[in-house]
Every structure is written in structure tokens, then in C-alpha cells.
Amino acid sequence: MERREFLGMAGALAVGLGLSGTAAAAAVEPGVTLEAALRARQSMREYADRDLPEALLTKLLWAACGMNRPDSGKRTAPTALNRQEIAVFVARRAGLFLYDAKAGALHQKSPEDLRAATGKQAYVATAPLNLVYVADMDRVAGNTAEEKLITAGLDTGFISQNVYLFCAAQGLATVARTGIDVPALARAMRLASHERIIMAQCVGYPKA
After folding, report:
1. Would you kindly state where each structural domain of the chain is located, as residue ranges?
2. 35-204 architecture in CATH?
3. What is the pLDDT of residues 166-178, one digit of tens each?
4. CA distance 119 to 91
């Protein structure tokens, strides 16, 4: 099957599934192959002092865990029993934001620049974005605390890998991190007792 024929079929499929907006665009936009993105995927810890354009940030967050089937509310990343218990917070210069997958929008939670607080490594403060993955432990699938923690980590990993592949395809730098002062960051983010920080991930343009 030729590429043009494939893209035509993908567009028809998007319409048939009722995809719209960024979801439809993601379904039909030509770009690198999955194999190329997997080969390019890597962790990078140095970032240019340059913010991501809003349109690119929107696509990044949709790739992370946006709705790819709006009629059912399903996401680009799976979660156990479809609990969708992982929230994606975005720490940037302008403050702390929460990603609303249904609306495809960011809601500001704080005007404070919390980037440096999202990790113990010095480079986290230089990344234009730090994604913080927070699990609602009351919603996580599992019968015990240990099972819930394992499930939350697994579901977060799916989102993080989506971000890795998007960054590889777009020429962005990223690295996932667990070196976090979790109690301090939770206080700074004003999280509830049932909300648990699982991991954070830097994103930005690679430093030249």
C-alpha cells in the first residue's frame, strides 16, 4: 500500500471514529515512522532556554494522554480498568498547570514557577517544561496498597513513553525522573492526601 493511499484511509478512519481537532490531525499528519521514533528515542538532560510554542505543547499533551476516541472518553495511554487515574501537571515559567484531556486545555493551578522543585537534579530548572505525573490513589485499580502503587507506576509509564516517542519524532529533548523531594513538591503543588506524585519528566529543545 502506498503512503498516499494509507493516509487517505487514516483520514477516512478518523472521520468514521468521530475524531476532531488535534485528535484528527494526529491521525492523519505525515511524519516519521514509529520505527524511526523508537530508534531516535533517548534521554537528554540539557535544554535550550526556549519555550515550546503553544501549538506544539498542545500536541505533546494530547500524545501523552489525550482523548483519541472522544465518543468514549478513551485516551492515547491505557490505564488499568480504564480508571484514568493519572493527572498530568505542567510546571513552566508561567506557573503550574493541570492538563484537561477532555477540553484539550491547561488550567492554571498556581502562578509560581515550580520547575526547580520538580526534581533534585540541577538541570530540571533549565527545562522549559517539567511534567509531573500524579496518581489519584483512591481511583487506582488494585486490592492492596502495593498493587495500587505498582499499577499507578505502570499506567504512568505508558504516558511517559508516549512523551518520549513524541519528543523523538519532533526533535525535542526529554528525560523521565524519580529523583524528587516528593513531600516538598506535594506541598508546593497543594496536593490532597490521596494524590501521589509518581514521576516527573523534563521536556524542551536540546541544548546546542
Report:
1. 1-30, 35-204
2. 3-Layer(aba) Sandwich (3.40)
3. 999 999 999 999 9
4. 11
